[in-house]
Amino acid sequence: MFDFIRTHTKWAMALLFLLIVPSFILVGMNSNPSVDKGSVVAKVDGKDITQPEWDREHLREVDRLRASMPSLDVKMLDTPEARYATLERMVRDRVVATAAEKLKLSTSDQRLARALQESPEIAALRKPDGTLDMERYRQLLGAQGMSPEMFEANVRADLSSRQVLAGISSSGFASNAAADMALSAYFEKREIQLARFNAADYAAKLSPTDADLEQFYKSNEKLFQASEQASIEYVVLDLDTVKNTIAVNEADLKTYYEQNAQKLSGTEERRASHILIAAPKTAPAEARDKARVKAEELLAMVKKSPDTFADVARKNSQDPGSAPNGGDLDFFARGAMVKPFEDAAFAMKKGDISEVVASDFGFHIIRLMDIKEPKQRTFDEMKPELEADLKKQQAQKKFSETAEVFSNGVYEQSDSLKPVAERLKLEVKTAANVARQPATGVTGVLANPKFLNAIFSPDSIEKKRNTEAVEVGPNQLVSGRIVQYTPARTQSLADVKDVVRQRWLAQRGAEEARKDGLAKLAAWKAAPSTAAAMSAPVLVSREQTQQLPPQVVESALRADATALPVFSGVDLDAEGYAVVKVAKVVPRDPPVEAAAKQERGQYAQSWSSAEAVAYYNGLKERFKAEILVAKPATSKLNAQPGRAQ
């Protein structure tokens, strides 16, 4: 084992922090609903990434996010796009790790030690004598499911993997001339005029016959399918359910009160004023010494005449936030100030003036102005709060046991949910018209993709058995069964005639707009002087889009401006068509030197990033990395009017 880590906490915890806090894209909890459990979802260098691995990674990511951002709504992350992003990251990690192994990019003990030394967050586990608090170290690792040996191996592997792309990212270069040329082209402005051919205007002039609608319906039957639906029963086991089964006796409450009353009542706060002579820790020793001498002189003044403390602070303190108020810092609790300041303030009596206290900011003279002791509440005042706390603690301990009973119960008596519901005092809930894709506005269990995937599995549909216990959130399991199933079907023309008409008009309106637009484009290209019915000239750029559609702006800026005017056509899909006339090219305003320097730096970073991405894509090809599930995409049909459900 790597003993260095055990004796240098500060460095070890920084790497632990990096492992705990997510550094990639936010992800959701569940797997892609279109993939069967246990199947292979990706391959890298001939090695599989399976569905269970993907599921576990989702859960780990969500747990990490919840730990770092307690107020985060996890439902926001539970989307197909976010889940797919997690899989992409898993593939990336595998590709980079494989490259590190193939390229023999190992990490020496010295390199690992240096990396740990550079990490400031590890200081949290240091004892006063500078050694590692091994008990806390093991506890933190254990909370992440790791032993010290596993942690050390993970850190070493992570450092090795970073070397794969570090060389590319850090060696990118772009000359000022190349950057200026690219930036000038990217930010140049163009004067344009626009002719819009709106699909809605053309659709308003159309009157489809019954034959037109019938032909469109027959040609596009898939657009008018009613999705499969089911009426279901389901039971939910969560922490609140378990909590409701727990009764806390009076004796336990009183014991808990006696042990925790002071802590639960609040924390002590102190009010202090200070005089700061600024001298950062990084300042030269000579400057620090000079600042200390100045602080000692001021200390002598205020000790001789304590009532002048506020005046001395106003005139001499170099803390711009408190100096105008005579050095007043208001009330603060432990943890609010840097440690040397806090230790001094909480060791003083009201009215005391400290000796000179050194911190990373400089040298302080502290006067303790007041002490606010927390008011200890009585047992009766705290009883409801104590009972809730104890119930929660006991429920968390009991949940795993109850979850096992729940999981076994829904499996062993798979033809009904009533036995497990009666045993655990759960409510059997019902829901009608449940679809594989939840309707807009549906939340909770019935919107959870993992649960819906289980409900609509072949075994559940054909045999109407209970699903397995599905984890849909922290300390939350659900099982369901289908009572009645209706397969997907094509709706009759009579049922969807209005929707068919809307779609026919939208499609034909866009076709007519495009046809007219293309004709005008050809005519105006042949004879630019005949161009009519165009908008007033406007100046557009990537920074000033004039609220025009992105396709229009991009077409205008990409048009070949060697011979002006130049015309281009833009297909606006369901909205119709547009013809853009570029009349003039206006160079970008030259940026000031400071801005130009910053832009060049950003351009060089972008260039380096692009090179790193290209190199990574090459590694993906080399190691035959492949994702075997479809990437989620928003269908264009969703944007069409009157979509059939």
Strand-helix topology:
Blueprint: H1 3-6, H2 9-20, E1 40-44, E2 47-50, H3 51-68, H4 80-102, H5 109-117, H6 134-143, H7 148-170, H8 176-187, E3 189-198, H9 199-203, H10 210-219, E4 225-226, E5 229-238, H11 239-243, H12 250-265, E6 269-278, H13 285-304, H14 309-316, E7 328-333, H15 339-345, E8 357-359, E9 362-372, H16 379-412, H17 418-424, E10 429-435, H18 449-455, H19 458-463, E11 470-473, E12 476-486, E13 489-490, H20 493-526, E14 538-540, H21 550-558, E15 566-571, E16 576-586, H22 593-622, E17 626-627
Antiparallel strand pairs: 1-2, 1-17, 3-14, 3-16, 4-13, 5-10, 5-12, 6-7, 6-9, 8-9, 11-12, 15-16
Helix pairs in contact: 2-5, 4-7, 7-22, 8-22, 10-20, 12-16
Distance between the termini: 60 Å
What structural class is derived from the secondary structure elements? alpha+beta
pLDDT < 50 stretches? 1-37, 635-645
The CATH architecture designation of the largest domain is Orthogonal Bundle
CATH fold name of the largest domain, please? Triger factor/SurA peptide-binding fold
Major β-sheet annotation: 4 strands, antiparallel
Mean pLDDT: 83
Envelope shape: extended
Strand order of the largest sheet: 14-3-16-15
Total DSSP E strands: 17
> Can you identify the CATH superfamily of the largest domain?
Porin chaperone SurA, peptide-binding domain
Helix content: 40-55%
Number of helices: 22
